[in-house]
Amino acid sequence: MAEVATARRSRITPEREAELYGAVLDLLREVGYDALTMDAVAARTRSSKATLYRQWGGKAELVVKAIRHNKPGKVADIDTGSIRGDLHTLLTREDDCAMEQNSALLRGVAMALHRNPDLRQAFRDQLIEPEMAEFRRVLQRAVDRGEIRPDCPALDFLIHMMVGGYATTVLLDEQPPTRAFLASYIDAVILPALGVSAS
User: Fold this and answer.
1) Do residues 152 and 196 make contact, with C-beta atoms less than 8 angstroms apart?
2) CA 123/CA 106 separation, integer angstroms
3) What pLDDT, on the 0 to 100 scale, is given for residue 174?
4) Which residues of 129-149 are buried (b: 16+ CB within 10 A; e: fewer)?
5) Contact at 8 Å (CB) between 177 and 102?
6) Cβ 67 vs Cβ 127: under 8 Å
7) How many other CB atoms sit within 10 Å of the CB of residue 94?
8) pLDDT of residue 1
9) 34, 76, 133, 162, 184 from 148: Cα distances, Å
10) Contacting residues for 53 by C-beta, under 8 A, at least 6 apart
11) Res 22: pLDDT
């Protein structure tokens, strides 16, 4: 039975999958998570609703996979030889326009997370936990290189600091995050917390 399900899933080409994910993200930006329906996705992508459910199981899974697909590669693949270089390189993977779009998208999804346990679970399993594991690998390399003390208390809070800097610019400064802001934030806040020189 599992082989049949796998065979059915493999019929969607990577190009078609990317097209579907793009349509889901467009709909999310237009109407938000709560108003997004599988019917709307099917209509937008000229797919059958049955195919969408067979492939993704439901709206939460589809939305989270679309967001994950939109991420520009794995954090742990960045290895410049220094934690500062790694964090600054991470910024170069999205320009200010993409950051603005993704910031708005994630704000909308963040609100829906509180009301939808299935979305919250899928988000945690497929985005938060893997992302934290990626950052732990980046940090472990920095510890192994001797840049960060292994007992540095800030090691457990890197993701919190990164997300905080990214998410609060709209709230506090009434503008989306930019590369310049986040680069300054990394040098002024994150690296000192990790005991690393910004120069």
Assistant:
1) no
2) 11
3) 81
4) ebbeebbbebbebbbeeebbe
5) no
6) yes
7) 19
8) 45
9) 42, 17, 17, 17, 20
10) 38
11) 92
